[in-house]
Design brief:
The protein contains 14 helices and 15 strands. The chain has helices at 7-15, 39-45, 61-68, 79-90, 124-135, 153-156, 169-182, 236-241, 246-261, 274-290, 298-305, 313-332, 381-390, 418-424, and strands at 71-75, 95-99, 140-144, 161-165, 185-186, 189-190, 198-204, 207-213, 341-345, 351-355, 371-375, 400-405, 408-413, 442-446, 454-460. The strands form three sheets. The chain has an eight-stranded mixed β-sheet with strand order 3-2-1-4-7-8-9-10, with helices on both faces. A five-stranded mixed β-sheet has the order 11-15-14-12-13. The structure holds zinc ion (ZN). Residues 7-26 have a biased composition (Basic and acidic residues).
Length: 462
């Protein structure tokens, strides 16, 4: 766990009147701790039991640490975030920051229970923090209406534990990379005090997962990147000839009949156009009838066309509860944390399973092993670009490739700035040899999936 700041400085910082949402500076005395307030938590921290950690000494200090010192960062104030904030606040954590870049949408209100109709349009982080601070006396949630990329290492280093409730793999990977960049090594040995544990929760419909990551020690997000399929697509042969699911019928209408029949001329299928969806729905219904498939509805058609994965409140509740429990276990050191990857599925009955995800020896994020690029000198830069984006353990999004040639930095390809993209685009068709690259050359690759530049070593193959 990262070195805690002195409690004194920490308190002074939080009492700073410029700090938004710092509502109650008297939290550290027991003004708001009525009798029995923490009796539920004390049962776990002030006595031992069959599941307590072998080194755990029951005492009253753990609770004081949670209440006064332990600083938690929650990333995301959406479906998982609302649950996490509520769970953490009610478990005794009072120094909580929350980062979310979104504003509240009407469609969030069915499950993001810290928000009300009057809050639509306001930043999620602000409203969530406000709600918790008013509802849970002594709790000081500090909101940040920001992207995670707006902050640097000094911001993230102040926390003891970080919990992610994100719906984006890119953001997860970036956060993972940030915590890895904070690690310090002495003579190749990891300094354990530089580790900030990352608890990551994710849900998709009725499926979810929760994991505990000790950066530099246990499997990180990028170690298990192969587990995230790049895109959920049905095989074309299934759609074309052996549909089994209502979704296959909708895909038939969308992918095969729409381009062939052009019902609205050359217009592309628009998921927000009810006439378009109606057309696809009717086609899907026809197809479903032919193959005796039931379950095609307008809503389903729209969901498939727009690739909507419905958010399920109960899945969020389960995953957030698991994540908050892990935060509690790690913060108190009273129980052995989850080791280290839990999957949950209640599509059909209820299934859960925990396994130990293993570190990948040459993980591009956490291994410190130089990454090799094996290409012949006759390969084109385009092939390297494709490798970086398509390789299942890299899955970069828009990599920018630079190198040093004759002592000068040279950008080989960069996508995100239009003028540079245009200027460097011709390089894509050039071979590595033509670009002047040599065997053993280092290529620095920057991408939105990581805050750090990844160094690749070019190894020429025959
Ligand atoms: Zn890794």
């Amino acid at each position: 766990m990262a070195d805690a700041e002195e409690p004194e400085t920490k308190r002074r910082r939080i009492e700073d009147p410029t700090e938004k949402m710092a509502v109650d500076s008297a939290h550290q005395d027991s003004a708001c701790d009525w009798r029995g307030r923490w009796s539920h938590v004390r049962k776990f921290l002030e006595r031992s039991g069959p599941f307590t950690h072998p080194d755990f000494e029951p005492s009253t200090e753990s609770l004081q640490f949670l209440l006064d010192t332990c600083k938690i960062l929650v990333i995301g104030a959406g479906g998982l975030g609302c649950e996490l904030l509520k769970n953490l606040a009610l478990s005794g954590f009072r120094l909580i920051h929350v980062v979310d870049m979104d504003t509240i949408d009407l469609s969030n209100l069915n499950r993001q229970f810290l928000f009300r109709l009057k809050d639509v349009g306001r930043p999620k982080a602000d409203v969530a923090a406000d709600f918790i601070n008013h509802r849970v006396p002594g709790c000081q949630v500090v909101p940040h209406f920001n992207k995670i990329q707006d902050f640097d290492t000094s911001f993230y280093k102040q926390f003891h534990i970080i919990v992610c409730g994100l719906d984006s793999i890119i953001a997860r990977r970036w956060m993972n990379g940030m915590l890895i960049s904070i690690l310090s090594y002495e003579d190749g040995v990891l300094d354990p005090s530089s580790i900030i544990p990352l608890i990551d929760g994710g849900t998709e419909g009725f499926k979810g997962n929760a994991r505990v990551i000790l950066p530099g020690m246990t499997a990180c997000i990028d170690c298990t990147l192969e587990l995230y399929p790049p895109q959920i697509n049905f095989p074309m042969c299934t759609i074309a000839s052996m549909p089994r699911l209502p979704e296959h019928c909708v895909e038939y209408g969308r992918m095969i009949q729409w381009p062939k029949e052009k019902p609205f001329g050359d217009n592309a299928l628009d998921g927000d156009n009810p006439e378009h969806i109606q057309w696809v729905f009717a086609k899907a219904q026809e197809r479903a009838d032919q193959f005796s498939i039931t379950g095609v509805t307008y809503r389903l058609a729209q969901g498939v066309v727009k690739r909507i994965i419905p958010a399920v409140a109960s899945t969020n509740a389960v995953i957030a509860a698991i994540c908050a429990t892990e935060v509690f276990k790690i913060a108190s050191s009273a129980y052995i944390p989850l080791n280290n990857y839990l999957v949950f599925n209640d599509v059909d009955g209820l299934y859960t399973y925990t396994f130990e995800a293993e570190r990948k020896e040459n993980c591009s994020a956490c291994s410190q092993v130089p990454q090799d690029l094996l290409f012949p000198p006759s390969a084109k830069l385009q092939e390297i670009l494709e490798y970086l984006t398509e390789n299942s353990s890299l899955q970069m999004k828009s990599p920018a490739i630079t190198t040093t040639l004759a002592g000068k930095n040279k950008t080989l390809y960069l996508q995100s700035v239009k003028s540079i993209e245009e200027r460097t685009r011709p390089n894509l068709c050039k071979t590595l040899k033509e670009l002047g690259l040599s065997d053993g050359q280092e290529l620095a690759v920057a991408d939105i999936t990581t805050p750090q530049t990844v160094i690749f070593k070019l190894n020429f193959t025959p």
